[in-house]
Amino acid sequence: MIKTLFLSIMQVLYLSSTIIGFGLFLDYVSKKANALIYAATGWAGVVATGFIGTPVHEFGHLVFAVLFGHKIEDVKLLPIKNENGVFGYVSHSYNPANLYQVIGNFFIGIAPMFSGTIALMILMKMLLPQSYEEFRTSMNTIMTGSPEVNSVGKFIMAIMSSFKALLSIENLTSVRFYVYIIIGVGIASHMSLSLSDIKNSLIGFVFACLVFFAINVILAAIGKETDFIVQKLTSVNFYLSIFFAISTVFSLLFLAFAHIIFRVSR
Fold it and tell me: Dihedral (C-alpha) 136, 49, 55, 58: value to the nearest 10 degrees?
């Protein structure tokens, strides 16, 4: 039973560690960039750079709060200014006695990573359909490719393939590509997870582990292997990681842009 509980915790950690790791790094880069922009232009510059990404970030919180039955008390999707800075927010409450709603806290907390990734995928499909198809085909090929290639090797191959699809001659000479980059930078720079997002998701994490534990106990009782759960989580993590890596590059571009604005303003 202890082994099953440990396995359940590892499964939830496996799903969430990539999301939280990238999310915290993106938060670090975003704060550095916003500090430079604020020093150069004041709050107006921070609002301008957050006008694309903030709604996507908060919409993620909102959608998952609704999906898990939380009561929505107030919503601000566009960046606003208050004594703590510039941001939007989703104010919601839940019934602590409702297990489903409690588990929802976990997903609501990390929701911006999902909403940002989905937005980048939709944007790529709309603006760069050929690159999107090349990306999807390449990911499927790599995931079902040679079993002797380890996960790290497949990840590197996927990253190289993704940027090859994006940085084609056709894209580099297309206005759509640069529109994608600009909007993508705006989205990626606000996909980040704040410490408050992580804190709010902790109680849901505990209950998510209990749910996985119950599933694993049931599967063991009927003689079913749990390997397929790990395989599904691996597949989800793989696709998310690729877009998180692209988002990281976008965020670093945002940081470079902030440095340029800061230097020019001096």
Answer: 90
